[in-house]
Amino acid sequence: MFNYEQYCTRMNKKQDVPKPLPWDNPRFKNWVAMMRAEKAVGRALSRALAPLDLKIAQLDAMINLYRHPGQSQHDLARRLLVGRSNITMLLPQLETQGLLRREGDRKDKRVMRLYLTDEGEKKLMQALEVYTALIDRVLNQSTPEQCDMMGDMMRRITEMLKED
Amino acid sequence: MFNYEQYCTRMNKKQDVPKPLPWDNPRFKNWVAMMRAEKAVGRALSRALAPLDLKIAQLDAMINLYRHPGQSQHDLARRLLVGRSNITMLLPQLETQGLLRREGDRKDKRVMRLYLTDEGEKKLMQALEVYTALIDRVLNQSTPEQCDMMGDMMRRITEMLKED
DNA sequence: ACAATATTGTTCATAGTTGAACATTTTTTT
DNA sequence: AAAAAAATGTTCAACTATGAACAATATTGT
After folding, report:
1. Per-residue pLDDT tens for B84-129?
2. B32, B132, B141 member nearest A25 (Cβ)
């Protein structure tokens, strides 16, 4: 349990009453650092993907579609942690570029099965090259073991918030 | 330098030509895990802040304003890694709630100096309690040392992308 | 079989984000 | 001092994200 009073870094000048700032809380402080890094990399990736005419959201979707071909829009939405309407708006962009194929499920007329086209896979490979190059660059001072440890932390978090 | 052919996890059934998937690249794989965790926590935080009538972007701004009182909108934009127009649109929300005070700089008539009001600081403390409670919960299986190590990785990344 | 409930994907209104163009003011150059 | 360049904050148009309401289809309970 987090103890609110425990992490006080500044004093109120007027009354010397502690101003609680959780900046000494290692979990909080480092989480904030992570948010910043994620944002910075996101901006860099965004620019790096521009020549391929791809947005990050589109790339995320394509990565998922490659790993789980034939999944429904509902499945994809859950994996990407977005709403279904988001997927509805996202897919036409990929479809008109010929990167994606949608087939109505035969048994269940409500669901659409999603597949990358060959062209989609080719584009994905180009994008992954850009993506991995960027990640390798920014993480090249960190060992694979450190990355694994960080990834384990993150997977535990995702698992813990799974129910929501 | 990233070696494209090094990370191949799946074979193409038709031709047995390796399909390059960087899933075995520890840096890439764990980065993706981080993106997911960050999104999951973001959604949880968003809901947790709703009773306080605060958005995450607003909280981020308030945290920065608390740590760097009197900074300009330009400074705030750079710290938050967003454009200046974003700040222009964000601040009125805080100002009309009485959480923020803007003063024109005396020497430079272009810049606005930003300060949290007392009410703003009070609201911030409430929000931080919610925030730290969530972070402590999702990271409570990770030791402070692990969190510090992760934070160091992240600060190196942010530093590396500073120039952009 | 029939009604009630749940699921899937779409639509729509609202709100958030972005970058370019702009007005104002300051700094630098000539 | 005058002109050119840069910095700061605003406006605007385009794009993206979100959740609620909805239509169509499936599943469950009686």
Report:
1. 999 999 999 999 999 999 999 999 999 999 999 999 999 999 999 9
2. B132
Integer Cα distance of B113 and B65 in angstroms: 10
Q: Looking at the complex, report in whole angstroms how far the Cα of residue A127 sits from the nearest Cα belonging to chain B.
A: 11
* DSSP bridge pairs for A103: A113
CATH 1.10.10.10 fits B53-137, yes or no: yes
Q: Which CATH architecture has domain A56-137?
A: Orthogonal Bundle (1.10)
ipTM above 0.90, yes or no: no
Do the Cβ atoms of A20 and B128 come closer than 8 Å? yes
Chain A contact for B44, CB < 8 A?
A: yes
The answer to whether B147 contacts A63, with C-beta atoms less than 8 Å apart, is no
Distance from CA of B95 to the nearest CA of A (A): 22
- Three-class secondary structure of residue A163 per DSSP: coil
